Amino acid sequence: MDYPVLDQEALFETQPKVHGWHFPAGHGLADMVHQPYWQFPSMSYYPAQQASTEFKVMWRVWEDLHDTEAETSVPQTADQSADSVFEFMVMTYNILAQDLLEANPELYMHCSEKVLVWSTRLKGILQEIQTWQPDILCLQEAQENNFKRQLQPILTDMGYTCVYKQRTGSKSDGCAVCYQNRRFVQLSVNLLELRQERCELLDRDNVAIVLLLQPVTAEYQDEKFTPICVATTHLLFNPRRGDIKLAQLVLVLTEIESVVRRCKTMGRECEVILCGDLNSVPNMPLYQFITTGQLCYHGLPAWMISGQEDLLHQTHPRRLYAPLLPISLGINDNCQYVTASKSEPSPSDKLKYSHDFLLRLRYCKVACMRPTDLELIPGVTDNTPDPHEKQPYTQRLRNTTICHSLNFKSAYSHFIPGKDRPEVTTLHSNAGVTVDYIFYSARTEHTRGQTDKRLDGGLKLVGRLGLLSEADLWSLRGLPNEIFPSDHLSLLAKFQLPASSPH
């Protein structure tokens, strides 16, 4: 199939004006709403429009967070200059793979056909990138042929170096990290495949990218600024399989931890940014694991991990049990790589768990509970394990909690400022919800009963592009539409990185 050669200048021309749309005003945007112009042969409802008038719908507003950060940060030195701070912007964007759009038309019944055409959506995606010009761009659902033949050449012309990883198996899309090569130098790259043959739980084709970038300044050789580890991923969608999502996330965090530890062995700190489509809503267990650094997962229903669906009505939901990952993967409960002891026998490819381990499961609380709908068959289902038989197997599972030490904080608050309405990052015919995130490593000092105090150094969030509520997006006929070309909104955050303290 031949792909058209795209004219970059033509792509960024102003789109034709939309006639006949009355957009209700978003928060603080009453002065920016367009009142469409109607022209009839014999009369005009509005005064004649000037031919030179150009209109842009400005739904999303930039939120300046300098003052907010200043309230909880340590005082800065009076003579701090602009040269001692490295400022950069990060965008994460699920751009909706065209193959997935066409394979799931029921999700886009509310959309007009013209907004679903790839050439139209491509133009809108590139316009958004061109408008904000992020220094680091993370993409999900980047379809391999469209990315390699159309997106990447244009991004390269815009000064980006692109790293791409296609999903495994027969999937046609993947993730990409693109960075401005005049502002960063790539120190290392890890392309992760989250399907692991040694783990029955990790049987899906999701991927991740972990990059280590060095900020480029006039004093680059002096390593004035600490390196930044940038990771992006698109976790499994299935709302009922939070167990798989959690296992996938552990793999990504373990790789990030490995990069951070390598930096520390060289006597350097390392900042971290984790972003992407995590297919999990705020404040549910997977989100809490990222932001608090620990999660006691043993016994949790799998659907509850991500919280995308409320399945409390299920009588016997799938649950998580320890250990989450087999020892053969070489990952411990602190999301760190470990080397197996030579004295331990290597596990068989087919034997996933030992016989003793399976016997211990026989006496867990769930196994001792008789299902209410279980048919009574004498000699088969009338036997209940005796709790006193636990004595030979008193050794409990060693760990039911997983941890990490990355100290993540979300760049977004997940609620519209000034209104008690949740932010939305994705919307289709079924629902609107937040599943896309930008997390960054925050150096803070915790005091009980007080707000965490930001310590000197590390990343400082100074701005972000505001999100919208579900009601706002439905007033625009949902997603995608003439303004937003994907079924996800982009997330954009600005950070400051102070110069490293001299050793």
Description:
The structure is a single chain. The protein is globular and about 80 Å long. It is 19% helix and 21% strand. The chain has 503 residues and is an alpha+beta fold. It contains ten helices and 19 strands.
In short:
This protein has 503 residues and is an alpha+beta fold. The protein has helices at residues 8-11, 66-72, 98-103, 118-132, 144-157, 242-265, 285-292, 302-306, 355-361, 470-474; strands spanning 62-64, 85-94, 136-143, 160-166, 173-180, 184-193, 207-215, 228-234, 271-277, 294-296, 401-403, 408-410, 426-427, 432-433, 436-441, 444-445, 453-454, 460-465, 491-498. Helices cover 19% and strands 21% of the residues.
How are the SSEs placed, and which strands pair?
Blueprint (H helix, E strand, L loop, with lengths): L7 H4 L50 E3 L1 H7 L12 E10 L3 H6 L14 H15 L3 E8 H14 L2 E7 L6 E8 L3 E10 L13 E9 L12 E7 L7 H24 L5 E7 L7 H8 L1 E3 L5 H5 L48 H7 L39 E3 L4 E3 L15 E2 L4 E2 L2 E6 L2 E2 L7 E2 L5 E6 L4 H5 L16 E8 L5
Parallel strand pairs: 2-3, 8-9
Antiparallel strand pairs: 1-18, 2-19, 3-5, 4-5, 6-7, 7-8, 9-15, 10-11, 12-15, 13-14, 16-17, 18-19
How would you describe this structure in keywords?
single chain; alpha+beta; 10 helices; 19% helix; 503 residues
Order of helices and strands: HEHEHHEHEEEEEHEHEHHEEEEEEEEHE
Main sheet overview: 7 strands, mixed
Provide mean pLDDT, rounded. 83
Spans of at least 5 consecutive residues with low confidence: 14-57, 70-79, 342-349, 390-397
